[in-house]
Write a structure and sequence with these properties.
Layout (H helix, E strand, L loop, with lengths): L4 H16 L16 H4 L14 H4 L10 E18 L2 E8 L2 E5 L4 E2 L4 E12 L6 E8 L6 E3 L12 E17 L3 E22 L15 E25 L2 E8 L3 E13 L9 E4 L2 E2 L2 E8 L2 E12 L2 E13 L6 E13 L2 E11 L5 E13 L3 E10 L17 E12 L2 E12 L2 E3 L40 E17 L1
Antiparallel strand pairs: 1-4, 1-5, 1-25, 2-3, 5-6, 6-8, 7-8, 8-9, 9-10, 10-11, 10-12, 11-16, 12-15, 13-14, 13-18, 15-18, 16-17, 17-20, 18-19, 20-21, 21-22, 22-23, 23-25, 24-25
């Protein structure tokens, strides 16, 4: 097949659309486990307890109950397994006497299974004020920072590589009325320090041609960017109706609207072009685009009961309910207004591209508690977490592995002379999702294709994909689980 000017121009337009295709809003969004080992060890049930500087995140009202000054340094390590097994499919592009070729695929895994997910550094103090507490802190959200899959693997039309790095800078204050009621507020600066998405699309423009596994016109696209100026706030409350019972609520009030100033690059994988594509704006070299998505509001509600004997706290148990409004993330948007792709003298405008995601709100339950084996010195803790899936099965994608998540946790604290050493282990298991082609709604991107909505023109569309834009790209089995270890060194005086 001879590569025409139109085909090459179509390839450039196709890869531009691919840059906006969903590839990883994991950044602080669908988080895995907890960053603080004292919270992680009890399954994340910490909204009502919130008795260390990480109350900045879990419930800032808890800062009012901390006496003295606390210094808190923690980090988390992850050993994860994310495996995608693409479903078998039929390749009608190479049918012989009307019989298609059956394609089977090897499983692929995230090639970056071990990750250090970033620090949690916080300092709190009451500054000698009886009913007040203050804190500042820096931490990264507990998500998997990086993913990397084979560039020629069966998942390549969804994702080949993703890196998202976010830091939260925080300042918080809290006040309480005796030991009955407390209120606190965290002001949070959200810094998307680094963002990178890579994936492959098919730039083919030939009528009726659908190649579900590999195309001569495969293009690797990459978007890299950052967004350093975003803000939100967390409001927290607690109430003690009786001496041994705490009720609490904490909420991120304002969505975080990420508008990452980014750069777009494109590369033909199988074709040898005389000249690489050129990106420009107003006649000058330019590759700037804006990649947009939203981190939604969220809510934590908790109830905690404290067991005591002779005035000594023996332990506690807490149940938390969580809600995250991920249905706000209905689409990703790539804005390349004014940007033009030039291939062999032909100009293709980029424009603004909106790609639907149709995520759902996420709900979670967290049950856990502490047991003071040697009060004030040795504490054991344990817990369990359940969390619903954000992605509808039909829109399953390997950037956020789908499926409900379950997981037990455990941990300990050792405290002497104002120094605390704590550690936790959590196991997070996602229920496998098996998706057939008939139930899939994510398709290989071929925006240069002559087959247009409603995809029923038999002169331009493949007779074997009528009613669909192209080959299904997300059918298969999704399996994931994670081992999480958190450690903490704290000091208070």
């Amino acid at each position: 097949m001879k590569t025409t000017f139109a085909v090459r121009a179509g390839m450039v337009f196709a890869v531009t659309l691919a840059a906006a295709w969903p590839s990883g809003a994991r950044a602080g969004g669908i988080e895995v486990g907890d960053q603080n080992p004292r919270a992680a060890g009890r399954g994340g049930a910490f909204a009502a307890r919130a008795d260390d500087p990480s109350a900045i995140e879990y419930n800032p009202a808890g800062l009012a109950r901390l006496r003295g000054t606390h210094i808190f340094l923690a980090n988390r390590f992850i050993l994860g397994s994310e495996e995608y097994r693409r479903a078998r499919t039929l390749d009608w592009s190479e049918a012989v006497h009307g019989v298609p070729r059956v394609l089977s695929f090897e499983p692929v895994k995230n090639q970056v299974p071990n990750q250090v997910l970033g620090p949690m550094l916080m300092v709190s103090s009451d500054f000698g004020l009886k009913d007040w507490g203050f804190a500042i802190g820096l931490y990264a959200p507990p998500g998997t920072m990086s993913q990397k899959f084979p560039i020629d693997g069966p998942q390549k039309y969804m994702l080949t590589e993703r890196t998202v790095q976010i830091l939260y800078y925080n300042a918080a204050a809290a006040w309480k009325y005796k030991d009955v009621f407390g209120i606190g507020l965290t002001l949070q600066w959200v810094d998307l320090t680094s963002l990178k998405f890579n994936l492959v699309i098919d730039g083919n423009t030939s009528p009726r041609l659908v190649e579900p596994a590999s195309s001569r016109f495969d293009i690797l696209s990459s978007v890299t960017g950052s967004d350093h100026l975003n803000a939100t706030a967390i409001l927290g409350l607690w109430y003690r109706p009786i001496p041994n019972l705490d009720l609490a609520v904490s909420a991120r009030l304002v969505p975080v609207w990420i508008r990452a100033k980014s750069h777009l690059s494109i590369q033909a994988l199988n074709l040898k072009l005389d000249k690489p594509p050129v990106l420009s704006r107003n006649g000058k070299p330019d590759d700037a685009v804006t990649f947009s998505f939203t981190l939604p509001p969220r809510l934590r509600v908790g109830a905690r009961y404290v067991f005591t004997k002779g005035g000594v706290e023996l332990g506690d148990i807490e149940l938390d309910f969580g809600y995250e409004a991920w249905s706000m993330l209905d689409a990703y948007t790539l804005d390349g207004t004014g940007l033009v792709s030039t291939v062999l003298g032909q100009n293709v405008p980029i424009g603004k591209i909106v790609v639907p995601r149709h995520w759902k709100d996420v709900y979670s339950l967290r049950l856990g508690g502490d047991w003071n084996v040697y009060p004030k010195h040795v504490t054991l803790r344990g817990g369990f977490t359940w969390e619903s899936s954000a992605a509808p099965e039909a829109y399953s994608y390997i950037d956020i592995f789908p499926g409900q998540r379950f997981g037990p946790s455990g941990g300990f604290s050792l405290s002497w002379w104002g120094v605390e050493l704590a550690a936790s282990y959590s196991y997070v298991f996602a229920m496998p999702v098996a998706l057939g082609e008939g139930d899939s709604n994510v398709y290989q991107q071929t925006p240069g294709s002559a087959c247009k909505p409603p995809y029923t023109d038999t002169g331009m569309c493949s007779a074997y994909c009528l009613g669909r834009p192209g080959a299904v790209s997300n059918a298969g089995v999704y399996v994931s689980h994670y081992h999480l270890v958190s450690v903490l060194l704290g000091y208070h005086f």
